[in-house]
Fold Glycosyltransferase family A protein.
Amino acid sequence: MTPRLVALLAVFNDARYLAGWLDRVGSQVDAVVALDDGSTDASRELLRAAPCVTRLLTVDPAEKVGWNEPLNRERLVRAGQELKGEWFIAFDADERPERRLWERMPQLLADADRHGIDVLDFALREVWDEPDHYRSDGLWGLKRKAAVFRNLGDDHEFDPAQWHGEWYPMQCHGTDRIQKVDFDLYHLKMLHADDRRARMERYQSVDPDAEYQSVGYDYLCDESGLQLTKITRDRAY
């Protein structure tokens, strides 16, 4: 049977998030295509043992050279296309959607089919200090991720951006083929101050001139004007 919804997942030393992802995301889709990008923790073993993982692509840690986001995205999309998935979902290992999304997903996709929508765009919430709060001041309240997109087959135009690139087909960018949906996607890797600093330092090292993000990366640890919003029970992840 042709899978309706295929999850695409690239991981690198994400073992601490994988059990939760496999439970909250992997169990809700028809198939999972995962790529382990040379992990040295238990990520690969967890993915191999997961019944929901239909296909696992790997990079040998001994042969890994740098961090190639565009290649990883293309490998995963191509593998998903080989499965003939109708829609792809790109929630990272450290991302969780609202629980209520899954009961609404069939209707969302049916509506997208009916209205010619190819990409669903979610509010991205950075969970901050407490698991039930996210940061909402300034640009933090404006973040989004277009994380569910239609399989366009060979017509898929890939984003070449080295960092912070998009998963969805680039011919949809800036068009009415992208639809904002009223669902939150929670990012867990900003929960702790140590993780926020590690993320800032990682991107400063690979993009020192902020070529791929004009705002730079210092803001990831700047708590000026900090405002937190509590996650209500009806929008929990």
